[in-house]
Please model this.
Amino acid sequence: MKILLNNKTEEFDKDTMSVSEMLEIKKFSFRMRIVKINGLFIPKEKYDSAFIKDGDNVQMLYLMSGG
Amino acid sequence: MRLPDIQDHLRRYRVGIAGAGGLGSNCAAALARCGVGTLVISDFDRIEEGNLSRQYYFTDQVGMMKTTALKENLARINPEVFVIIYQKKLDPENIPVIFSGCDVIVEAFDKAEMKEMLIETVQTLMPGIPLVVGSGLAGWGMSNEIRCRKVDDTFYVCGDESSETTDEMPPMAPRVGMVASMQANVVIEILMEMN
Model:
């Protein structure tokens, strides 16, 4: 499937994957982060049950302390 | 549009600022100078001497509540701005109440956990309200790493998204100010498109 990940097209060798799987494949290991799929905020309790499919717009960002 | 017309437009809006530290105090000062009508600012800390390295406070304000001192400073910048302050630790229950009626909300916390809590609360309980987040401002130099990213219509992030404050990488006035100004600039951009 092809998805838009942080505004870049990325191809994955799967038909669908959970947010947790995507984070693992992409090695997004930093724990403090925000994930949105097609504009919908995904709480971290739902990373195993929220699925990403072909054509989705996925946004991920890290939250760094400091302010 | 000339500045008086811009100020007339901005006067109609209300902006929430969650936190009155480095990001919040500097962002509030910029928004007050632009003439945003109402600022709702929440913070529960007192000013410490170390804060003066980057936050919009003065030596004779050390020991004061940040919200009280900031209200005072904003009144000296632009007395026409209506400033509402809350001395509260923000949580998922009080955020929608404190910031109800705000046209835009600025995330200006220090700790990543608090940033996450605010983002989750606003994005799930206050859908449609644009949120401008700061992430990544530690240290010095690397000016061009600081950027502003529109995630979607209700979510913007300003900062380098990678530097974290530590003892060796403290938050310092120039980069903190850059991110705070960038957040204020996004707020103005959003408000100028509203009518």
Q: What stands out?
A: Chain A touches chain B through 14 residues (CB under 8 Å). The CA atoms of residues 9 and 63 of chain A lie 23 Å apart. Chain A has one domain: 2-62.
